[in-house]
Amino acid sequence: MISTFTAFFDANVFYGARLRSLVVELAQTGLFRARWSEEIHQEWISNLLKNRPDLKAVDLEKTRRQMDSAVLDCLVSGYESLVPCLALPDADDRHVLAAAILGKASVIVTFNVADFPDKELSKYGIHVRHADDFLLDVESVDSESFIEAVSRDLHHYKDPPLSVDDYISSLERAGLPKAAVFLRARKVMLEASIDDC
Q: Which domain holds residue 86?
């Protein structure tokens, strides 16, 4: 059964491959509904290509298509008319709130919490969570499903394989120190899941 609790993801959550992959894996648990827009895709892809000339647009477009096919009903569209009616500190972020409203999101997940003031979001019954806090919120709903999703995500990295320590460290470097602490405390469980494969 899929939860009715809906999270709309800001582009910065998808900028790093490790967190992007984990979010998609967690979305498949049904513990929350994950939503984003084509504009979110365009933003994370263009920023990544600008900062990482070693990456290819065709590969990132393939990733985008895989994300969209992996998560049921993830894309929000038709929100553009709401954008001019919204007020945020950075006008360029209004498309995020507009899509979150139309997508019936309960929360906007981002690394830039200050860009989405509670005063504005509360008008629409939406709140904002840092990506690190959101992961722990998901874990608190169903710890076993959370760990299983992390294990599945870790198993994606086969060429070359990624150790549990390297995986957790990469999440920490991606701006997820609380999730890293949580997962380090469960390192033995994650290592056992690798051995079972």
A: 6-130
